[in-house]
Structures are given as structure tokens and as C-alpha cells.
# Entry
Amino acid sequence: MTAAGVQVHETTAGRVLLGPGARRCVPSEVDRLRAERAFVVSTRSAAHHVDECLADLGSRAVGRFDGAVVHTPVHVTEEALALVLASRADVIVAFGGGSATGLSKAISARTGLPQVVVPTTYAGSEVTPVLGETRDGAKTTRRDPALLPDTVVYDPELTLSMPRGLTLTSALNALAHAVEATWAVDSSAYTDALATEAVSSITQALPLVLDSPTDLAARGRLHSGAWLAGCCLAQTRMGLHHQLAHALGGSFDLPHAELHALLLPHVTAYNLPAAPAARERLTRAVGDDPVQVLADLAAQHDGARRLRDLDVPRDALRAVAERVAAAPYPNPAPVDVDSVTGLLERAW
Ligand code: NAD
# Structure
């Protein structure tokens, strides 16, 4: 129990390596954890990086599973877990986006094994103590510091293969973590600093990367911005944006990053009139009207830009708003059925 008005801040433990070529440090990070038997999980997109890593690990490599998929279904975890147990691994190494990280956390939660995570997107899961899992379409989420990877290795060279659409939507997904931290009920000087730097890094680096996808320095800035944004997600209570993303994503099985990307300008426009300090911070971070900057970035997506493009039925919007308003996450602007339906209509 803490006294009213007293902020409690816990930094997430962990070791972070960042820079071009950092993936080649995985074997020494495995050694550092005093592990001798590494099992590598990934999404298929990372297969050739896994080949390289297994070669670097040499006799310390004891197995691989490249079937990680979005939303961490329990049946996939159980399939991978059987291989991990049979291999007598003593560390999990993960290559991929949030899906590979989710699988790594799910295996660690069942075995206690330490994790070295090598993210290839900007999702941020690698620095959060949160795991969402699905069984028969139903999602359960747990939060436990023991889920945090021991070592995170950000190598921007691994993001060079991201298609333009994934780069844009994944970066906007990261931006959403930082933007919501600016108006979070439990924001602090620490999270304000993280969020401000994350927003300015991502909004400056993203246009450079979209213009020149092989600009490694800009890719590196984007990756480090995503790291800080992930820390915002870990450190603050998310509001209406994340609640809408969970409600819509869960109801209609929508693509994670694309959904975040299209919602963000709408939720920001809705919340900022009720969050003057966040408005000021975001305006300073982007040097312009934050809603316009986010809308301009989201408009550059060649894929789905509206909920209707994702086949969300218009007549379902009010029911989503009712569910969200029945148990709202803490949010600066009121979360009532009519207002949230209006917001969803604008995003539709
Ligand atoms: P993802 O990991 O599912 O990857 C999306 C697609 O992009 C996949 O097909 C993947 O193979 C491909 N891909 C990944 N990196 C690539 C690269 N460098 N080059 C080419 N293709 C690449 O997507 P995501 O958005 O990173 O993660 C989404 C998942 O993470 C969801 O399950 C979400 O719930 C979870 N998540 C969890 C947290 C948390 O804190 N627990 C935070 C954010 C996201």
C-alpha cells in the first residue's frame, strides 16, 4: 500500500544490445546467461537469420521451430514446447516480430527458461512483462515480470526486409504505445521522457525509411524509438486506443499493426482536447499539429486505411462502443457509447 499521490516506478530489468550486426552477439549472450543448449523459435520470415544464428551457435544449437503466428495460440505453443522439452534446451532464442516474442514468452512461462529475443519489427513486446494467448479464439492476458526476456538484441539490419506496409504500420503501432503514454493516468517524468523521445525518433525516422528503405541509420533510429515506445507500453496503463484495438482485433480477427495504424489519428484527435499536457508534449516532439502528423503518416499506407477496408461491418460499431464503455480503460476524454461510436464511424 502506498500513500495517495505517491508515484511508484519500477524499471524493467534486462539487457539491451542495439546496432547493426548486433545479432552476431547472440552466442556470447547465450554464454553470458551460462546456457549451453539454445532452442531458436521464429516466424518463417526470419528463417535465414535463424540459419545464420544456428551456425554461429555451433554445438550450442539444439533445435528450431519456425511456426510462430500472431496472437500466440496455445496449440502452437504446445507443439513448440514438446520440441523444446525433447531437446533439453536451457535457453530460448527468438527471431521475429511480436508473434515470435509471444511464443518465446509462452514457452518461458511454462519452463522458466531464460530468453534472448531478437525483434524484427517495431511491436515492442520484447520489453513488456505481458503475454496474450489465445485458445479457441478466446484471449487471456497475463502480466508477470518473470515473462520479460533477459536479453534483447536490436539489429536494424534485420528490419531491412520489412515490406513498406509492415514498416509503416508497425512503426505506427509503436507510436501508439508512446502517444498513449503521454496521457496515461500513471505517466511520470520517466515515461514522459521515454514517450517524447520515442515520438520524435519515430516521426523523424519513419519518412526517411519510407523514402529510402535501405537507410540503415534511419532504420536504427526507428528501432531504438520502437524500443522506447515498448518501454512506454510496459510502464503505463494504456487508454482508449489500446482498448479499441483489443476490442476490434478480438471481435473481427484483424491484423494487429494495421489496426493500430488506422485508429491512432482518430483516437488522438478525440483525446487531445481533454489532455492539454499531452498535446503540448506531442506538439513539441513532432514540431507541428500531432493529429495532422499522425494522419499524414497513416495516409501513406497502401493497404487498409479504414475499418471498412478490413471488412468490419458498420452496424457492429455501436456494439463495440458499448463493450468498451461498459468497462473503460482510464482515458482523458469521456468513454461513452455515443462518443465512441462517433469515433469508430470516423475511422470506418
Ligand atoms: P508479427 O510478428 O505477427 O509479424 C507480422 C508479419 O510480418 C509476419 O508474417 C512476419 O513473418 C513478418 N515479418 C516480421 N518481421 C519481418 C521482417 N523483418 N521482414 C519481413 N517480414 C517480417 O507482427 P507484430 O506486429 O510484430 O506482432 C504482433 C503480435 O505481437 C500480436 O500477437 C500482438 O498481440 C503481439 N504484441 C504483444 C505485445 C505485448 O506486450 N505482449 C506488444 C505488441 C504486440
